[in-house]
Amino acid sequence: MAKKEKKEKVKYYDDGRSIADMSGVRGSRLTNSARYRSGSTAKEKWETYWSAVKMMIPPMLVVVVGLGVAYMILYLILLLA
């Protein structure tokens, strides 16, 4: 059997700085944003927005009805007390 080489243990010291690869960044956001054009149209954006809103309507109605029922129950309890 061949002897395995011992791997050198790497020690990391945290100096509080964040690490980020900024090699691909050129220029500021303001200068790049003028040249950037979104590939989607206003109609596509609206369809995406509306599909997200449609997914939120049923849970919202459940919460609103639940709050209304809880309010009515507390109102009747306090009215009769």
Instruction: Give the DSSP E fraction (strand runs of 2 or more residues).
Output: under 5%
Order of helices and strands: HH
Our count of helices gives 2
Shape: flat
User: Structural class, from secondary structure content?
Assistant: mainly alpha
What proportion of the residues is helical, as a percent range?
55-70%
Q: What's the average pLDDT?
A: 83
**Could you give the count of β-strands?**
0
Major sheet attributes: none
Low-pLDDT stretches: none
Radius of gyration: 29 Å
Determine the N-to-C terminus distance.
86 Å
Task: Summarize this structure briefly.
By secondary structure, the protein is an all-alpha fold. Helix content is 57%, strand content 0%. It is built from 2 helices and no strands.
Fold and architecture overview:
With 81 residues, this protein is mainly α. The chain contains 2 helices and no strands.
List the helices and strands and how they pair.
Elements: H1 29-35, H2 42-80
Task: State the main characteristics.
single chain; 81 residues; mainly alpha; 57% helix
